[in-house]
Amino acid sequence: MKAIRVKQFGGPEVLEVEEVPVPIPGPGQVLVRVFAAGVNPVDTYIRAGIFPSKPRLPYTPGMDGAGEIAGMGRGVRGLKLGMHVYITASLSGTYAGYAICDPSGIQPLPRGISYEQGAAIGIPYATAWQALFHKGQARRGETVLIHGASGGVGIAAIQTARLAGLRVLATAGSSSGLRLVKKQGAHAVFNHCKKGYLEKVMASTRGRGVNLILEMLANVNLERDLNLLSMRGRVVVIGCRGTVEINPRLMMGRDSSVTGMLIFNATENEKKKIFLAIHRGLKSKKLWPVIGKKMRLTHAVQAHRQIMNGPAAGKMILIP
Predict the structure, then answer these.
(1) Residues 144-175, buried b or exposed e (16+ Cβ, 10 A)?
(2) CA 112 to chain centroid
(3) Number of structural domains, the chain?
(4) What residues have CB less than 8 Å from 56, skipping those under 6 apart?
(5) Are 63 and 89 in contact, with CB atoms under 8 Å apart?
(6) CATH of the domain at 88
(7) What is the pTM of this model?
(8) For the chain, which terminus, N or C, has the lower number of CB atoms within 10 Å?
(9) What sign has the CA pseudo-torsion 226, 232, 237, 243?
(10) CA distance 237 to 220
(11) What is the mean pLDDT of residues 64-72?
């Protein structure tokens, strides 16, 4: 099978295409034939060697994917060969024709959801749910601002927030991105590349500020976010690409808070709640993954370059 292998940390060019044997599932493991793999920004941080935890070299990237169960090791219960699933965590990496997973790292793919859409579920929708409810403590009727909402996590957050009865404000950096987030249900959209958009965001709340902000690029936006919050407002930092300096008095005056998150830190109980909620949303079609660019697995280098340079418009997918 073809697989992407990383033998040293570095830029996108370290992603190499190789022919490798199909892995064999061990006891308690599942082998999934991968028909689509999701590309996430975190994949690029791991590849560059700047993520807090580093895999042992060489490794195959990728955590999200979708396909069908092609094999099972001894002791696996409740699953069947040929079952359509999406991957939320892989032991061997999803940028490959086949992936080894723990049973807890796969979920049933609801009827009507394509493999490409399945590869867009794991990290984006779980991150959105964790940020909104476990970290952000969002409540029905509150206003949430989603920065960089045209990417995989942003779209998942819009859909999930609307499903929970929140008022959604969203930003994007291109006309196509703005159209996309509006179509996904944002009540108001703003171009974060245009001067004065922050004033427009505040005006849309009639000066009261937003209750919750989901922040995808904290090194650029965090100081500004603190000026947009309502009393006891919250910022959940989902993404950051550098350092930032803030004035804590902006938090003190509003009794506001800033918290960071990584979906990999979610507890098993939290993950159970998250994927149960996601499954219900997918079955009801209230959650509907949006696919952006699709590329062949052999174009992984290009995919990693594009996902960091944007603009985003849905989830980026690799096809093995």
Answers:
(1) bbbbbbbbbbbbbbbbbbbbbebbbbbbbbee
(2) 21
(3) 2
(4) none
(5) yes
(6) 3.90.180.10
(7) 0.95
(8) N
(9) positive
(10) 12
(11) 98
Together in a domain, 133 and 116: no
Do 50 and 18 form a contact (C-beta atoms < 8 A)? no
- The angle at the Cα of 143, spanning 139 to 146, to the nearest 5 degrees, equals 110
CA atoms of 61 and 7, how far apart (whole Å)? 11
Domain of residue 190: give its range.
126-263
Last residue of a domain, one of 224, 245, 263: 263
Q: What is the pLDDT of residues 108-120, one digit of tens each?
A: 999 999 999 999 9
Burial 88-101 (b: 16+ CB within 10 A, else e): bbbebbbbbbbbbb
Amino acid found at 107: Q
Q: How far is it, in rounded angstroms, from Cα 142 to Cα 128?
A: 16
276 half-sphere exposure, CB direction, 13 A CA radius: 6
- The backbone torsions φ and ψ at residue 107, rounded to the nearest 5 degrees and listed phi first, read -135, 150
- Strand residues in the chain grouped as ranges (E): 2-6, 15-19, 30-39, 65-72, 84-87, 98-101, 106-108, 143-146, 167-172, 188-191, 210-215, 229-237, 257-260, 291-296, 315-319
Question: At 63, which amino acid appears?
Answer: M
**Which residues does residue 108 pair with via DSSP β-bridges, in sequence order?**
85
Give pLDDT tens digits for 25-56. 999 999 999 999 999 999 999 999 999 889 99
Helix locations, 2-102, DSSP H: 41-48
Q: At 1, which amino acid appears?
A: M
The size of the chain, in residues, is 320
**CA 76, chain centre distance (Å):** 28
Tokens standing for residue 58 = 């060489």
Residue with tokens 């209750």: 211
